[in-house]
Amino acid sequence: MGKLKFQISVSLDGFVAGPNPSEEDPLGEGGEQLHEWVLALAAWRKPHGREGGEVNASTPIFEKATANLGATIMGRGMFGGGPGPWGEDPWQGWWGDEPPFHHPVFVLTHHEREPLELEGGTSFTFVTGGIESALEQAKAAAGDKDVAIGGGAEAIQQYLAASLVDEMLLNVVPILLGSGTRLFEGLDPDLGFEQVEAIEAPGVAHLMYRRA
Amino acid sequence: MGKLKFQISVSLDGFVAGPNPSEEDPLGEGGEQLHEWVLALAAWRKPHGREGGEVNASTPIFEKATANLGATIMGRGMFGGGPGPWGEDPWQGWWGDEPPFHHPVFVLTHHEREPLELEGGTSFTFVTGGIESALEQAKAAAGDKDVAIGGGAEAIQQYLAASLVDEMLLNVVPILLGSGTRLFEGLDPDLGFEQVEAIEAPGVAHLMYRRA
Question: Is residue B88 part of a domain?
Fold first, then answer.
């Protein structure tokens, strides 16, 4: 049985997005700094069709987090803001013709829509039945592999609050955002996690936890 | 010239104390779990007059954080709640006859009081002129050595907000507190820090930052 896991970049003051997010700037003011460490990695650039990049202490962490994934769950905003409800000529999200997932993706939404099959093994299935329904479908699709929560923060928070997350990787970036979206907001202290590892890498600290 | 630094234990959700702190329970509900890692260390137990304890990956971090200190600044609450204003027979705080500092301590308060000289080289000087006055006096007392902000959160937050902190060590403990006192609250994103190191230890991740 696979695990449900997520990874997310978080500022020193606990924000996963800065203030005033918009469709052009979904990470809010200053939020793009959260992802500089990963955009610099060759291991990220290659599957996203970009050349070059670094190999450093983040590389094995990133590779481990993205290995053995059989399905991804994401919120509607991460699939792509765009016009909604879907309309007659629904767009295909942010991800282009060949999204980097290469496995089934389940999108949490309030609006029904037919599944979308794209190139390279990625499909988008639109789930209106809530987070547990999406997880059930994702686990069935993933088989023995793991299921990732791709984001955004709201989707992750819902799975955390329901105590369904098995493993999480926090990439702590030494910036302050001052305000914005916090990852951990009003969670039950009884949600037990234990530390698995803490790894130093250039400009980021990788903290891995699993459900206790 | 010494540095101004602090270390503090913080929950995964960013709290340095749990909800409903009181005089009997200054760390709030669940907050005592934040300090289990340090209370277990022989390096902490010895200067606090306790026997036994562990030597582990936290030991050199703790020793480095407490080495080369020439003065400490703390808030009035950390000196000791107790009756205030001081009254005719003012008490000597939480720290007993021989406090573990062994150097001058400057207490931020609104109530004037004569300095207190205790055993083992610790003195308490009560500063009513604000955080910059306390820092100036502490630096003068410390000479070439560093000045620590001992706590509590409010004192640390004031020095952070004034951009006076040179170095900080966050000890991230894998618990959730759900609510309470956050270390980082409404800070200016331009306050630049850079990561110095990230160290894994039993039940805690030590993240060290310095002013960029």
Answer: no
CATH number of domain containing A184: 3.40.430.10
Query: How does DSSP classify residue A109?
Result: -
* pTM more than 0.90: yes
Confidence of residue A69 (pLDDT cuts 50, 70, 90): very high
Q: CB atoms < 10 A from the CB of A86, how many?
A: 15
Q: Which two tokens stand for residue A37?
A: 């460490």
Q: Is A57 on the interface with B (CB under 8 A)?
A: no
- Find the closest chain A residue to B187 by CA distance: A178
Q: Does B161 touch chain A (CB under 8 A)?
A: no
For helices B131-142 and B153-161, give the axis angle rounded to 10 degrees.
Answer: 90
Chain B residues with CB under 8 Å of A174 CB are 193-195, 209
Q: Does A19 touch chain B (CB under 8 A)?
A: no
Residue A64 placed within a domain: yes
Over residues B162-201, the pLDDT tens digits come to 999 999 999 999 999 999 999 998 888 888 899 999 999 9
- How many CB pairs below 8 Å do chains A and B form together? 93
Give domain status of residue A147, yes or no: yes
- The range of the structural domain enclosing residue B167 comes to 4-19+28-81+98-211
Across A66-70, A96-100, A207-211, B157-161, least confident range: A96-100
A173 occurs within a structural domain = yes
Across the interface, do A177 and B193 touch by the CB < 8 Å criterion? Answer: no
Number of domain units in chain B: 1
Query: Among B191, B81, B103, B202, which Cα is nearest to B147's?
Result: B103
ipTM of the complex: 0.91
Per-residue confidence (pLDDT) for residue B85, from 0 to 100? 60
B205 and chain A: CB distance < 8 Å anywhere?
A: yes
State the average pLDDT over residues A2-9. 97
Contacts of B199 in chain A (CB under 8 A): 198, 200
